[in-house]
Batch of 4 targets.
Target 1
Amino acid sequence: MQYFQTNTSIEKFDENILAKFKKLFLDYRYLKLFYQMIDKTRNHEICLLICDNFEKILMSNRSAFTLNEFESIDKKIIKLRLHCLDKTDRWNKYIEYFEYVFNNKNYYSTYSNESDVSRFGKFYIHTRKSEHHIHFLYEGSYRYEVIERKIARSLKTDKLGNLRHHPQSELTDEEINHRYNEVLKWSKILDF
């Protein structure tokens, strides 16, 4: 996976690609539509490869983004990769990547300082003025715990049918095409 590699010789991308890239990640409507396309067509395997390309674009063009844009996009790529690892039932890779991000990315979300700090556990970073800074992965910690339970159960039994997601291979080409076109129709109705 790309997150373990360094980006030393990646070419710069043209402004048109960067504009589309920013639009995808900074306009929630487009990102939501992208998620729908991936989920409806169950194309999570390809999306994992796309996440590598998204990381390349972001890292090799760092100066084209403000600090807030860079952080926001990086967090969204991380969440997209976690989503696809979950949907492809790569539980150990999910846990490994989650821990890698937790230990190497200090992005945070803010919560009111009236919130009980103990509820955040290891995700608590510090308190500043009127807010707690909580590692942004806290929002996905429930899914992390679910996946840990799936791993534990898989070590005890071979019967995992109801724990696994349905892969794209269970869809016919016609079903994939139909699902893809449904999302496109919906996007045209919303005037994207």
Target 2
Amino acid sequence: MNRPGFSFLACPDPEIIRDRVDRLLAEQGSGFDKAVFWGDEELGDPFWSALTVASLFSGRRALVLRRAEACPAEFWPKLAAALRGFNDAVWPFFCLEGAFDRKGPKYPKGLATQPYFKVAEKRGWLFVSPGLTRRDMGPLLADWAGGRKLAFEPGVAEALAAALPLDLARADNELAKLELTLGDRSVLTMDDAALVGGHEGMDGFAFLDALASGRDPAAVWREIGEKQLAGEDMVFPFLGLLLYEARIMWRIAAGEAGDVRLPSFVMQKKQAMARRLGAAGLTRIFEAAFAAESGIKSGARRPDQAMEYLTAELFRLFGGNARQTRPLSS
């Protein structure tokens, strides 16, 4: 036996679940017909027959139970007899797609105590993933670009890694749309990265806009730290996005708005801020971001201290000094 007798997959991202099942089946070669059932629907005779009865006229069967966390508690003991021995004709997959809590997956009532589930844990037949994280985006982008012979200009991969949604299906969709915009080009630029946005991830311009609106800097910092940075490893990508926004506004203020591809309402907001900041104000954004980055890399500041410093500097910038700076086009 070179495959699991059965598999449990715990992940809140259904596309990762689907991809994992397909990968496991592909590793075994062809020969598995897939039968899919749903835990939030009644599981009658067709399910139990597919789980236990081998067909004389077809090959091996992969039985996939999606949303298995929705099965009633009395369902799990009923599986014991079917999973007691190895059935070469049937490979069951039980997909637990509920949200994780701080400790990890929340297993359905009645499952964790089952002997077969303990076997799955012991033998590595249990796949657990919290879903996409920002750490996963780098390898995901590398695989995507490598398979298409694409390259990134400096900083673009980091900007995309910070902007893509933490949902595999949506991330794949964004990358597919991005690929369509490339045409014959094979190098992605920051302008391309700007097309990926509007997600719940980090937003450098929203950070600036919040400070420009006169919001309490401590509240802005808490929002950034708690909702957007998602750990110290995201500070540098966030600083990269902030610098990207400053570069975009520099180009807008310098009369190059026609070369910047943005939705009209987004362009209007960035044009207004670029006018407000002018050359000196935009330069101060660059200086503050570089100082924060340098402080972290030199060990002079912890990441949270560097971000507090950055927030305070930018708040002072928007406090009135920027209104008196000269425009780039003058």
Target 3
Amino acid sequence: MHTKIALLGSAVLAAAMATAPAAAQFRQALDISRQTATDSARSQQRVDELDQEATELLTEYRALIKQLNILQRFNESQRAEVENQLEQIRGLEIDIANVEGLGQAVVPLIGDMLEQLKRIVAADIPFLLEERQARLDRLDGVMADSTQTPASRYRLIVEAYQIENEYGRTISAYDGTVTEEGQELTVEFLRVGRIALIYKSADDSLLRIYNSETRQFQDLSRDFLDDVRLGLRMAKEQTPPGLLQIPVGAPEAAIDGVSSQASE
């Protein structure tokens, strides 16, 4: 009996000893399976990340290609613009070279224009003499100023001619002084273009007109007093423009004088 029990215990012990390594191997296999699943999950996550990164890089690449095409077209247009500007610069350089030579010819011309303007003022009816002489003096100063360019000198002389030209088609009224019998009197002048220069005293006792032939003022018929008054009001814009009766004569002597001086 005891022998059977001993044999049975030995068999159980042998079975238990055989079972222990199998369980350990199972747990080891299970751990390996779990690790494999974890590694697979990490690998799939990495694959997904790489796929997302590849998609983003492809999108960025396509955007850069599109931007590159735009920049290439822009550069082409800018290249054409630069070539056009270079051509303009070359043209301006030629113009500047020509202007330097032209300036040498313009300076004497401006001087001649100024001298001619002085002759015109000297031969003209004597209105606004101080103002006009001051303008001529300023032009003399500009001509003598070495800092002034030929262009600025030419512009100023042309402006002076324009002002003088304007006098020929306007009327004006201004106060001035005259000397009568050794006394200086304040009178009112009426200028009608360049054809008549008249003045009258405040009390209308004096009414005189400039004679271009004698280059002196002479008495004007009082029949023209109302027209002179009307002309003064029109010049001051106190009444609408209208027709005036003013005795005038052709200033042939003055014109001939200017023409003969200009031809010298």
Target 4
Amino acid sequence: MSYLLKKKTYCNIDNTCLPKHVAIIMDGNGRWASKQRKTKINGYKKGSKVAFSIIECCVKLAIPYLTLYAFSMENWQRPQSETNELFNLLYSFLTDKNQISSMCDLNIKLNFIGNINLLPHSVIQEIKKVEELTSINNGLLLTIAVSYGAKQEIINAISVIIQNNINDISENEFEKFLYTKDLPQLDLLIRTGGEKRLSNFLLWQAAYAELYFCNTLWPNFSCKHLIKALQEYTVRERKYGR
């Protein structure tokens, strides 16, 4: 993080133009592991360390909302041994007192979205605990999308609307039924790993978000790469169809 303290690098960004809400598709963990001749779980472990570094970077840059795509609905199709390892890794994070303490020291509030009920019971319990523990924090709102699918999110919202016999609804009202109801509009969506698609992530929310794709695999992603994405965002003109 030391380079953030170098005035030249830091001041290249116009803080008044920074996005309020950034989302990241953290892609490339498996390919990184393969290149390193390591197992996939090693790639995810390295990726989780990178995630915390990026979270710290967002705190330093005073970005108020960060959403990370950790596990999609489609990821359930992976071998059970792999999903078990992923949830063991998530459980280890949630029960790591040092990690959670660091989050609190950074004034971070944790928020999980997705079909959480599909997760192992032990993970669900720990999610509830850390959400409660960090609920008093008012700094960065860190949202982690787990067991999340945007199509499923929209269908779920429609189902709730039908159940409540709501016949007339606006876009603003509809958004109150989404998992992201407590989040502002998405400004910037970053995808690492070289792929150029949304992969069922925040489809409604990304309607007018700026998209930034980079070839860097997630375990190699750094605050320097994030700053580059933010710099490009600040020079784009957002017209919203006008």
